[in-house]
């Protein structure tokens, strides 16, 4: 929902990752296991993101 938040939790023992929006509006920076990143979404829309280290790791947040 608009105004809501999403939290990503790093749970990979073998590699570090990022949560980087495709439009560069948010970026967790390179992180490893145990890290949590929270992003608020103040408007409706579809927000695509990826891991800058692993280009095959993609996701989408849909806010209504």
- Record field, number of beta strands: 5
How many helices? The count is 0
**By helix and strand content, what is the structural category?**
mainly beta
- Strands of the widest sheet, in order across it, are 2-4-5
Shape call: globular
Biggest β-sheet, characterized? 3 strands, antiparallel
Order of helices and strands: EEEEE
Proportion of residues in extended strands: 35-45%
- Straight-line distance between termini: 5 Å
Give the helix level as a range of percent: under 10%
- Which residues sit in consecutive blocks of at least 5 with pLDDT less than 50? none
Task: Tell me, rounded to a whole number, the average pLDDT.
Answer: 97
Describe the structure.
- This protein has 64 residues and is mainly beta.
- It has strands at residues 5-9, 20-21, 36-40, 45-50, 58-63.
- The strands form two sheets. Strands 2-4-5 form a three-stranded antiparallel sheet, with no helix packed on it. A two-stranded antiparallel sheet has the order 1-3.
- A hairpin with a 7-residue loop joins strand 4 and strand 5 (58-63).
- The chain is globular.
- It starts with a strand and ends with a strand.
- The mean pLDDT is 97.
Q: What's the short story on this structure?
A:
The protein has 64 residues and is mainly β. It has strands at residues 5-9, 20-21, 36-40, 45-50, 58-63.
What characteristics describe this protein?
about 40% strand; about 60 residues; about 0% helix; mainly beta; two-stranded antiparallel ribbon; single chain
């Amino acid at each position: 929902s608009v105004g809501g938040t999403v939290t990503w939790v790093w749970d990979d023992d073998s590699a570090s990752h990022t949560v980087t929006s495709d439009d560069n509006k948010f970026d967790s920076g390179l992180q490893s296991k145990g890290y949590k990143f929270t992003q608020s979404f103040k408007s409706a829309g579809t927000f695509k993101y990826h891991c800058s280290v692993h280009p095959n790791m993609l996701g989408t947040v849909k806010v209504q």
